[in-house]
Design a protein that fits this description.
It is built from 11 helices and 40 strands. By secondary structure, it is mostly beta strands. The strands form 8 sheets. It has a 22-stranded antiparallel β-barrel. Strands 3-8-9-6-7 form a 5-stranded mixed beta sheet. The protein has a 3-stranded antiparallel beta sheet with strand order 16-39-38, with no helix packed on it.
C-alpha cells in the first residue's frame, strides 16, 4: 500500500473518530438540496462526491460564466483555448472534448437535465441560477454516455407565481459593459412565465502590435424564457427556450519559446511575440481571429406524481453553430492566410424515468434515454502570400523548390501559391440509447445498499472528404519526383540552364539511363553534347562506391528528403472506402454499488464502486488518417495515395472504474465532506496537437488516487470560512504510443500526465454585517492554489496557480444591491495549455491566463 493511500485512510479515520454517534452535533440551518442522484436530497444525505455552488455564492463572487467556476471547485478545471467556444472540463485530472467536434467530452454538462454535447453550447450566461453541482467520478449509471469522468449539473429557477425579477448593470476595467434583466410572474392561476437575458461586452486585453483589434474581448448576448403549466397539484409542465450568440476576437497566444524559424519570419519583414516576456499581452498578427457561435434550443419537461411513483420526461432539441477563423502561425507574416473551423451540430434527446415516492423498504428508479445528433465539420487551411518565400529561406534558397517544380512539370510558383490549401468536410450521425435502473435497499433505518445498472448502445456513421489544391504535398520525393529533382539539382550545380524533365519516371541511376535521358532533346537538349558516362561522372560523387543506383529513401544520398517537412498538407484519403466503412457500434453495461450508513443524525459515511463509459470518438480533423493497422489492407486495395500517411481515424471507448470511501458530517458551526478514491480509465481518449494537426489515440490505462475534502466553518455568526482541497497522484500506467516532440511517438508509461496538479486548494472567507438602518453588507475574499505541473507532456512550460479574488457589497431593504468585485487581483501569471508552433519547428506557443479584471454592478430586485 502506497504512502499516499495510508495518508488518505488516516485522514478519513481521523475525521470519523470525532464524528461517531454520541458526539453532539446540531444541524446547520442552510441545508443544501441537490439532485446528484436524480432524487432531491440534502447534500449530507447524498452519498456521492459532489461540490455545490449556490446562487448566493455565484452572485457574491460575480462568477461571470462557467469558466470561473473552478475558483470555488478545486477538483474542476475549466480551460478555454483557441476559440471562445473551445471549453474543456476536467475533473480529478480526467477530461477531454475540446479542439475536435468528433470528440465528445468525458465530463457531461447538463442544464436543467438537458445534455449539452459540445463545449460551445456550455458557456452561455444564465439569467437566474439556483445552483451548480459538480459530480466527481464516473456517473454513467444515471447520466449515460459521456459521463466517464464526472458531471456538471446546472439548475436554474422555475418561474414564480409571484411577480419578481431584477435589472442589473455593471461596468469595469477593459470598458466592461454588462446588462442583465429577469422577470417572472403568473399569467393565470396555473400558468407562470419567466424571461431573462444579458448583454456582456468588454474590450480585449491583448494589444495587436500590427494595428488590428485587441484580442480576447467579450461580446455575448443571451435570452432564455420559461413557461410553467400546473394543470393540477400533481403535474408540472415546463417549456424552456434559449438562444445565445458569441461574436468575439479570440484568443491570446503567447510565444513561450521562439525557434529558429523566427529568423526567417524576420527576414521576410514579419515579427513574432517576444518569448522573453510571454505575459506582455502583445500579439503580432496579420488578421483578427474571429469567433462566432450561435447556440439555441427548446426543451419540454413533464413531471407528474402518481400515487406511489413520479414520472419525469425531458425532451430537447438543440442547435449549435461555430464559425471561427484565426491566424494560426501567430506572426505578422502571412504564412497561413486562413485557418477556419466551422461546426454545425443538431442534437435531439429524450429522457423518461419513473421514480418511487414515499417511505419504502425499497426505493427504485427506472428510465430510458435516447440521443440523436448530426455533426457537420469544415476544416480549412489556406496558404498565405509569404509562405513560399518562408519555405525557400528554410530550404536554403529558391533552387530546391524551383527544381522540384520544374522536374515534375509544374509552372514556376505553383508550390505554396497563395490561396491553395486543404479543404475538408466531415459528417457524423450518432444515435444512442440507454436503459438504466437503481434500487435502494434500506436494510435498517440507517443502513442503505444501492445498486444500479445502465446499458448504453451507441452507433456512429462518419464520412470524411477533402480537396487539396496545394501540389507540393503530393510530390513523392522518394520516387519520380525525388529522382528527377535530384538529377536536375546535380546538373544545375554544373550547367547554367536546366529544362524540365519529360516524365521518364523514377529510373535507377546508371550510365545507360542517364544516356537515355540525354538522348531525348525535349528533356535535356542543352546537354546533348555530353555522353551518359560524362554526366554519370558528375553525379558519381553522390553515389557510394559500388552502388549502382541512388537510394532515395536515404537522407545521405537524397538531400531533398529535408523538404518533406514542408509537405504538411498531404493528400487526404476519403472515407468510407474499400477498407474503412466509417462506422462504429459500441455497447456497454455499467454499474454502481454503494453502501451508505448514517452513523448519527449528523454524520454519514459511504463506500462505493462504480464504472463509467464513453463510446468511440472520431477524429474529425485534417489529421484524420487510416489506422496504421490497416496499412497492408489500404495498399493491397490500391486506394493509397502518394505520400500516404497512417495514424488513427478514431479512438476506441473509454472505460472508467472508481472505488471510493466518503464521509459527510454537519455540526453546530460547520460541515465537512471527505472522499478518498482510486479511479482508473482504460483507453483514455488522448487528443494532442503536434504542430500540424491533432493526433487522436487511446492511452492504455490512466489512474489517479486522491483525497478530496471541503469544509465550512462559522467561528462567529458574521464570519463564514470555507476550505476545499484535492490531492491527486495520477500516472499513465500504460501509454506505449504516446505523443512525443516533433510528431514522434514515445512511451509515456509510468509518467505523470501533464496538466494535473498534485495539490489544488480553494478557500474563502466571507464577513457579513447587518446595519441598524436595515442595510446589510458583506466582504469576501477567496484564494485558488495549484501546485506546479507540466502544462503538456511534450513541451517545457509549467504552471503554478496562486490566484486571489475578492468582492464586497451593500444591500438595502428596497431591493437595491451594489457589488464591487475583482478577479486575479495580484495578476497571477500561468499558462493554461501549450502546443508546438504551427509550421514553425522548434517554436512553442502557449495560452496565458486572464490578467486582473475588476468592476462594479448595481442590481435592483423586485
Amino acid at each position: 500500500m502506497t504512502k499516499f493511500k495510508l495518508h488518505a485512510i488516516a485522514t478519513t479515520a481521523l475525521v470519523a473518530s470525532f464524528a461517531l454517534p454520541g458526539a453532539a452535533f446540531a444541524q446547520m440551518e442552510d441545508e443544501i438540496v441537490v439532485t446528484a442522484t436524480k432524487r432531491e436530497k440534502t447534500l449530507q444525505q447524498t452519498p456521492v462526491a459532489v461540490t455545490v455552488t449556490s446562487a448566493d455564492t455565484i452572485q457574491k463572487t460575480q462568477i461571470q460564466d462557467i469558466n470561473d467556476l473552478q475558483s470555488v471547485a478545486p477538483s474542476l478545471r475549466v480551460y478555454s483555448l483557441q476559440t471562445s467556444a473551445n471549453t474543456n472540463f476536467i475533473i480529478r485530472g480526467f477530461g477531454n472534448g475540446a479542439n475536435n467536434a468528433g470528440i465528445e467530452p468525458s465530463v457531461g454538462v447538463f442544464i436543467d437535465g438537458v445534455y449539452r454535447s459540445r463545449s460551445a453550447a456550455q458557456i452561455g450566461d444564465l439569467p437566474k441560477l439556483n445552483r451548480i453541482e459538480v459530480l466527481r467520478g464516473p456517473q454513467s449509471t444515471l447520466f449515460g454516455k459521456n459521463a466517464s469522468a464526472g458531471v456538471i449539473s446546472i439548475v436554474t429557477a422555475k418561474p414564480s407565481f409571484e411577480t419578481e425579477g431584477y435589472v442589473e448593470i455593471g461596468t469595469g476595467n477593459l470598458d466592461l459593459r454588462l446588462v442583465k434583466a429577469y422577470v417572472s410572474g403568473a399569467l393565470s392561476d396555473n400558468v407562470a412565465a419567466s424571461i431573462g437575458g444579458s448583454f456582456n461586452k468588454r474590450d480585449g486585453y491583448t494589444e495587436s502590435a500590427t494595428g488590428f483589434s485587441d484580442i480576447n474581448d467579450r461580446d455575448r448576448f443571451s435570452i432564455r424564457g420559461q413557461l410553467l403549466f400546473q394543470p393540477s397539484d400533481s403535474t408540472d409542465i415546463r417549456i424552456i427556450a434559449d438562444y445565445s450568440e458569441i461574436d468575439e476576437i479570440c484568443c491570446t497566444v503567447a510565444n513561450f519559446e521562439n525557434g529558429p524559424t523566427a529568423g526567417a519570419i524576420a527576414f521576410l519583414g514579419g515579427a513574432v511575440a517576444d518569448d522573453a516576456d510571454p505575459f506582455a499581452f502583445v500579439a503580432y498578427n496579420n488578421k483578427d481571429p474571429r469567433n462566432q457561435v450561435k447556440d439555441g434550443g427548446v426543451s419540454l419537461h413533464i413531471d407528474h406524481d402518481f400515487e406511489s411513483f413520479a414520472l419525469t420526461s425531458i425532451t430537447s432539441y438543440r442547435s449549435n453553430k461555430l464559425d471561427a477563423t484565426y491566424d494560426a502561425d501567430f506572426s505578422s507574416a502571412d504564412l497561413l492566410s486562413d485557418l477556419r473551423i466551422a461546426n454545425d451540430i443538431d442534437t435531439f434527446t429524450q429522457e423518461l424515468r419513473l421514480t418511487s415516492t414515499g417511505d419504502n423498504k425499497v426505493d427504485w428508479m427506472v428510465g430510458g434515454y435516447y440521443f440523436n445528433e448530426d455533426v457537420v465539420v469544415e476544416d480549412d487551411v489556406v496558404v498565405g502570400a509569404d509562405f513560399r518565400n518562408f519555405a525557400d529561406i528554410l530550404a536554403g534558397g529558391p533552387d530546391a523548390l524551383g527544381l522540384v517544380e520544374a522536374a515534375n512539370g509544374f509552372a514556376p510558383g505553383s508550390f505554396y501559391a497563395p490561396g491553395t490549401g486543404l479543404f475538408d468536410t466531415f459528417t457524423q450521425d450518432n444515435e444512442a440509447y440507454s436503459a438504466f435502473a437503481t434500487l435502494d435497499f434500506h436494510i435498517t433505518d440507517r443502513l442503505t445498499l444501492t445498486g444500479g445498472l445502465n446499458y448504453t448502445d451507441d452507433k456512429k456513421k462518419v464520412t470524411g472528404n477533402a480537396v487539396s489544391t496545394e501540389p507540393f504535398s503530393a510530390v513523392d520525393l522518394e520516387g519520380a519526383g525525388g529522382f528527377n529533382s535530384l538529377f536536375l539539382a546535380t546538373l544545375a550545380g554544373t550547367f547554367p540552364t536546366v529544362t524540365p524533365a519529360c516524365g521518364l519516371g523514377a529510373l535507377p541511376f546508371s550510365p545507360a539511363n542517364v544516356g537515355a535521358l540525354l538522348a531525348a532533346p525535349a528533356c535535356f537538349g542543352p546537354f546533348a553534347g555530353l555522353t551518359g558516362a560524362q554526366v554519370w561522372g558528375i553525379i558519381n560523387s553522390q553515389i557510394a562506391a559500388g552502388v549502382g543506383a541512388l537510394d532515395l529513401s536515404d537522407p545521405a544520398q537524397n538531400p531533398l528528403l529535408g523538404l518533406q517537412a514542408f509537405q504538411f498538407l498531404p493528400p487526404f484519403l476519403g472515407f468510407p472506402n474499400a477498407v474503412e466503412d466509417g462506422k462504429t457500434h459500441d455497447n456497454k453495461l455499467t454499474w454502481t454499488a454503494r453502501l451508505a450508513y448514517d452513523a448519527s443524525d449528523s454524520v454519514n459515511v459511504y463506500a462505493s464502486a462504480a464504472t463509467g463509459y464513453k463510446a468511440t470518438s472520431w477524429n474529425l480533423s485534417r489529421d484524420s488518417r487510416p489506422d496504421v493497422l490497416n496499412t497492408a489492407a489500404v495498399n493491397s486495395a490500391g486506394i493509397g495515395l502518394v505520400n500516404q500517411t497512417f495514424g488513427t481515424r478514431f479512438a476506441g471507448p473509454e472505460e472508467a472504474t472508481v472505488f471510493e470511501l466518503g464521509l459527510k458530517a454537519r455540526f453546530e458551526r460547520g460541515a465537512i465532506n471527505i472522499a478518498v478514491f482510486d479511479q482508473t480509465i482504460k483507453g483514455f481518449q488522448s487528443n494532442t496537437f503536434l504542430g500540424t494537426g491533432f493526433v487522436l489515440g487511446n492511452a492504455g490505462k490512466q489512474s489517479t488516487q486522491g483525497i478530496e475534502m471541503d469544509a465550512t466553518f462559522v467561528p462567529v455568526d458574521p464570519l463564514k470560512l470555507t476550505f476545499a482541497m484535492t490531492l491527486l497522484d495520477p500516472v499513465f500506467n500504460s501509454f506505449v504510443n504516446g505523443p512525443g516532440p516533433n510528431s514522434t511517438v514515445v512511451d509515456l508509461s509510468g509518467q505523470k500526465p501533464a496538466g494535473i496538479p498534485s495539490v489544488s486548494i480553494a478557500t474563502s472567507a466571507t464577513y457579513t454585517h447587518n446595519f441598524d438602518n436595515g442595510m446589510s453588507g458583506f466582504i469576501r475574499g477567496d484564494f485558488q492554489y495549484e501546485s506546479a505541473v507540466d502544462v503538456v507532456e511534450v513541451l517545457a512550460p509549467r504552471r503554478k496557480v496562486q490566484t486571489v479574488n475578492a468582492s464586497a457589497g451593500l444591500s438595502w431593504e428596497n431591493g437595491l444591491d451594489i457589488r464591487f468585485w475583482g478577479r486575479n487581483l495580484f495578476n497571477d501569471k500561468y499558462f493554461l495549455s501549450a502546443f508546438p508552433g504551427v509550421v514553425q519547428a522548434g517554436t512553442t506557443n502557449a495560452y496565458p491566463n486572464q490578467p486582473r479584471t475588476y468592476g462594479v454592478s448595481v442590481r435592483k430586485s423586485f
